[in-house]
Amino acid sequence: MAMANPVHVKGDPGSPTEQKSNGGSPKHQALRNGEIGDSSRSVTTDRYGFLGGHQYTDPEMERRLPQDKLRKRETKWLDMFINWDKWMSKRFKKVKERCRKGVPPSLRARAWQHLCGSHFVLEQNRGVFEEYLKISGDPKCIDDIRKDLDRQFPLHEMFLSKGGVGQEALFQVLKAYSIHRPVEGYCQAQAPIAALLLMHMPAEQAFWCLVAICDKYLTGYYSPGLEAIQLDGDVLFGLVKKTSPSIYKHMKKQHVEPILYMTEWFMCVYTRTLPWTVVLRLWDQFLCEGVKVLFRTGLVLLKVALEGQDNLSQCPTMYETLERLRLRKLPPELQDEDFLFRESLHLGISERDMEREHRKQIERRKAAREAKEKENSSGSQIGSMRHQERPKRRS
C-alpha cells in the first residue's frame, strides 16, 4: 500500500479514522470480505502466522528448500556466528552471498541481530529497555502509538487480538524508542518495522534492532520534516533516469514527485508492499548491504509497473500512474522472490552510481537553498531601502 501522503500523516487508508468511517477494524473488514474465516470455521495460518490478506503465503504455492540443503546452510551460518567479526571484516563477500540466497528461517532472528549490530549493543545496555518501560513517556506519542496498534498486520495471529501479547509487545518497543530518541519521538512508519521484528524475536531484542535500523540504515527518515526521505526520493528519481528513461520522462511530464509513491516503500522497508516471502529475503539483504537494497528494489518495482508502451498508455494522468505504483494488485512477477532479486542485480546500476547521484542531489538541494536565502536577503534589503526612502510626514 504505497501512500500518496507521507507516512506521518493520519487519515490514510487503514488509519483509525478511516476504519471508523468504513465500519470497523481491518480484521472485521477482512471477515466481511471473506479474507479470513469467521469464528464458526477453522482458520489455518500459513507458516509465518498470517490468516489471510495479500501477505498470506499459500503452502501449496510456496517453494521450500530440501531439508538436506537447508541443514547445510544452517551449519554454515552457525559457523559464521562463532567468528562473526572475522567473517565481516575478511570474508564479507561470502556473507553477502549467503544473505542473497536467504538466511535459514530458524536462524533469521540471530542473523539479523548480528548483521545490524544490535546483538552487541544489547549486551552493552542490559536493563536499559526495562528502565524505559518504567518511564511514562510523552503523552502525545503514547496516544499515537495506542491508536496505531490495530493497524499493524491485523491478519497476523500475533497482532489479531486487541490488547493481546503481540500488541502489548509492539507498544513497549515503540514507546521505548520514543523515549530513547525523544527528538524523533514516534512515527507511524516505525510500527510495521517493529512488528516484523517482533515476529522473530522478543521485545528487548526487537527494540535494539529497531534502534540500529533507524540509526545506521534509515538515518533521519523519521525526523520531523522528512528531509532525508525526500533526498533519497530525488536520488531514486535520478537513478530512474539512467535505468528507465521512458518512465522518467512519463513521470516528469505528469509531475509525479518521488515522495508520492516511494515514501512507504522506503520508510517501512517494503513490509506493507511485497509478499511475505519476498519481504524476508529482502530484509536478509537489506541488513547486510544497507539502503542500496531499497533503491534497487524500487527501480525494479517501477520497471514492472510502468515499463513498456502498453503500461504507459494505460496511465494517461497522474492518478492512473500513482494507482499502478500503489501495487494493490501485485503483478505475477513480483510474487516470485527470485525474479525481484535477480532483476535488482541486473539493473546496470553500481554502488558508485548511487553515491554519485546522492552527491549530485545534495549539491542540487544546497544550491537551491542558497539561492532562496539570497533571494530572501535581497528582498529584505530592498524593503529596508524603501523604508529609508519613505518621506517623513509633516507635523
UniProtKB/TrEMBL annotation:
PANTHER family: RAB GTPASE-ACTIVATING PROTEIN 1-LIKE, TBC1 DOMAIN FAMILY MEMBER 10A. Residues 102-290 form the Rab-GAP TBC domain. GO terms for cellular component: plasma membrane. This is Rab-GAP TBC domain-containing protein. InterPro entries: Rab-GAP-TBC_dom, Rab-GAP_TBC_sf, Rab_GAP_TBC_domain. It comes from the Eukaryota. Residues 1-62, 353-395 are annotated as: Disordered. The keyword Plastid does not apply. Keywords: GTPase activation. GO terms for molecular function: GTPase activator activity; small GTPase binding.
